[in-house]
Amino acid sequence: MLQISKLTKQFGSQQVLKGISARFPEKQTTVIVGPSGSGKTTLLRSLDLLVRPDSGELMFDDLKLDFSQPISSKQRNKLRNKTSMVFQNWNLFPNLTILQNITSAPIHVHKVAVDQAEHQAHKLLQEVGLDEYATAYPHELSGGQQQRISICRALAVQPQYILLDEPTSALDPERENQILRMLERLSNEGNSLIMVTHNMQFAKNVADKILFLEDGELQFDGDKEAFFSAKTDRIQQFLQGVTLN
Amino acid sequence: MWEIWSSSLPSLFGAMLKFTIPLSLLSFAIGLVIAVVVALIKFLPVQGNRFIKLLWQGIRLLVSFYVWAFRSTPLLVQLFIIFFGLPSIGIKLAPFTAAVIGFSLNTGAYGSETIRSALLAVNQDQWDAAYTLGFSTPQTLWRIIMPQALRIVLPPLSNEFIGLVKDTSLASTITIAEMFQVSQQIAAQNFQPLTMYIEVAFLYAILCTILSTLQHYLERRSSKFVQEVSH
Ligand SMILES: Nc1ncnc2c1ncn2[C@@H]1O[C@H](COP(=O)(O)OP(=O)(O)OP(=O)(O)O)[C@@H](O)[C@H]1O
Ligand SMILES: [Mg+2]
């Protein structure tokens, strides 16, 4: 299980994470919500060391990182091999074909045989109905298609946790629904997901657990049911605000 | 006039094959290696302890000085210092060697800035995407960043190469019998400077036209992954 303790991060003079402790249970979907600028992306990126926290700890099975100490590249790789991020803007590699986007990490990082990696990639592509685009380049695909490919790319390295930062916010409602169904399926199949989203309906559908972040502090950490029926003023206010949008 | 051209063409062509082209190719190849190394030194952050960081800062300062020095002084002066100046401190170089060193260092200085800005022009989110999949920094550079930078860097680098081909005429001043010097010699014999210099200009133009054609071909090849823009 992935776990963090007293994580802090400062950008310049701004304290963006103020000592966050949380657990991300395996085979469950943890959704991080909160107002804009509250530190959700920073927290998520910390879990893959795309942001280096200033202090605190991260525990993952037998791996233990203490951020007040230097992190070795071996530790970093160990963590990154267990987690994989899906970005808001997809960030597919424009110089590689769709197939290469999905197979590059299995082949070059995990040393999987080429035909095996390609077989696996085609299987993922078939699942999302995009196998016919295997030899296309990312710019030839629509936003929703690129987002599905980016999820395939993350899945291809068989991460224990998939991290998603607002996976649907750059999409129109129809494409958003496609991605939501895909994530629901992943979650039902027993994948461990950690996701930042502004979409409360979606959070309601897929979340097992909600983290509510505000101003770099965790205001709520618990079951989805408890969150959506929470009586605290702040959560009520937040939920009303988002529903209005 | 045709007679003068056809009788002088073999010598000019010989000089082109013997000096102008080898000088350009060799200097550009070495210059490109220097440029890539310098660009990476300036571009890559360093990880490690205090000592390594300090060392890296020192190396960066040194390469910055090199780039500054060669971009802020005329190429002709650089050639003169290397060929006529260095012997007085005991470094005697053959003309061709001196020319290759001068042109390479000059190309390296300009090219490094071109390459560095191309590396910076690649969307930096690409690093995140590669890192999250487990790519190392060299792997990310080689497989993801450099191929994208190549497309950006081709037009300016081609310009620099074409400029270099023309600049090899400066090697005539350090006693190299390259194409331009041969045309000077012939003009001094037959008293037809206009005819001779137009001929040599034409030969440079042919060389450079071949290069631009090559450039367009390479640009098309390296852009196959880019969206076509209709203007
Ligand atoms: N690399 C950075 N350098 C400086 N400041 C940063 C950096 N990344 C984030 N910040 C700041 O940290 C704060 C939290 O940013 P973060 O992106 O984590 O918020 P967020 O909750 O994801 O917001 P949003 O919902 O708008 O995506 C913001 O004030 C932001 O300006
Ligand atoms: Mg964010």
TrEMBL record, chain A:
<keyword id="KW-0813">Transport</keyword>
<dbReference type="InterPro" id="IPR003593">
    <property type="entry name" value="AAA+_ATPase"/>
</dbReference>
<dbReference type="Pfam" id="PF00005">
    <property type="entry name" value="ABC_tran"/>
</dbReference>
<dbReference type="InterPro" id="IPR030679">
    <property type="entry name" value="ABC_ATPase_HisP-typ"/>
</dbReference>
<dbReference type="InterPro" id="IPR017871">
    <property type="entry name" value="ABC_transporter-like_CS"/>
</dbReference>
<protein>
    <submittedName>
        <fullName>Amino-acid ABC transporter ATP-binding protein</fullName>
    </submittedName>
</protein>
<dbReference type="InterPro" id="IPR003439">
    <property type="entry name" value="ABC_transporter-like_ATP-bd"/>
</dbReference>
<keyword id="KW-0547">Nucleotide-binding</keyword>
<keyword id="KW-0067">ATP-binding</keyword>
<dbReference type="GO" id="GO:0005524">
    <property type="term" value="F:ATP binding"/>
</dbReference>
<feature type="domain" description="ABC transporter">
    <location>
        <begin position="2"/>
        <end position="240"/>
    </location>
</feature>
<dbReference type="GO" id="GO:0016887">
    <property type="term" value="F:ATP hydrolysis activity"/>
</dbReference>
<dbReference type="InterPro" id="IPR027417">
    <property type="entry name" value="P-loop_NTPase"/>
</dbReference>
<dbReference type="InterPro" id="IPR050086">
    <property type="entry name" value="MetN_ABC_transporter-like"/>
</dbReference>
<dbReference type="GO" id="GO:0015424">
    <property type="term" value="F:ABC-type amino acid transporter activity"/>
</dbReference>
UniProtKB/TrEMBL annotation, chain B:
<keyword id="KW-0813">Transport</keyword>
<feature type="transmembrane region" description="Helical">
    <location>
        <begin position="20"/>
        <end position="44"/>
    </location>
</feature>
<keyword id="KW-0812">Transmembrane</keyword>
<dbReference type="InterPro" id="IPR010065">
    <property type="entry name" value="AA_ABC_transptr_permease_3TM"/>
</dbReference>
<dbReference type="Pfam" id="PF00528">
    <property type="entry name" value="BPD_transp_1"/>
</dbReference>
<keyword id="KW-0472">Membrane</keyword>
<keyword id="KW-1003">Cell membrane</keyword>
<dbReference type="InterPro" id="IPR035906">
    <property type="entry name" value="MetI-like_sf"/>
</dbReference>
<protein>
    <submittedName>
        <fullName>Amino acid ABC transporter, permease protein</fullName>
    </submittedName>
</protein>
<dbReference type="InterPro" id="IPR043429">
    <property type="entry name" value="ArtM/GltK/GlnP/TcyL/YhdX-like"/>
</dbReference>
<keyword id="KW-0029">Amino-acid transport</keyword>
<dbReference type="InterPro" id="IPR000515">
    <property type="entry name" value="MetI-like"/>
</dbReference>
<dbReference type="GO" id="GO:0043190">
    <property type="term" value="C:ATP-binding cassette (ABC) transporter complex"/>
</dbReference>
<feature type="domain" description="ABC transmembrane type-1">
    <location>
        <begin position="17"/>
        <end position="215"/>
    </location>
</feature>
<feature type="transmembrane region" description="Helical">
    <location>
        <begin position="194"/>
        <end position="214"/>
    </location>
</feature>
<keyword id="KW-1133">Transmembrane helix</keyword>
<dbReference type="GO" id="GO:0022857">
    <property type="term" value="F:transmembrane transporter activity"/>
</dbReference>
<dbReference type="GO" id="GO:0006865">
    <property type="term" value="P:amino acid transport"/>
</dbReference>
<feature type="transmembrane region" description="Helical">
    <location>
        <begin position="65"/>
        <end position="86"/>
    </location>
</feature>
<comment type="similarity">
    <text>Belongs to the binding-protein-dependent transport system permease family.</text>
</comment>
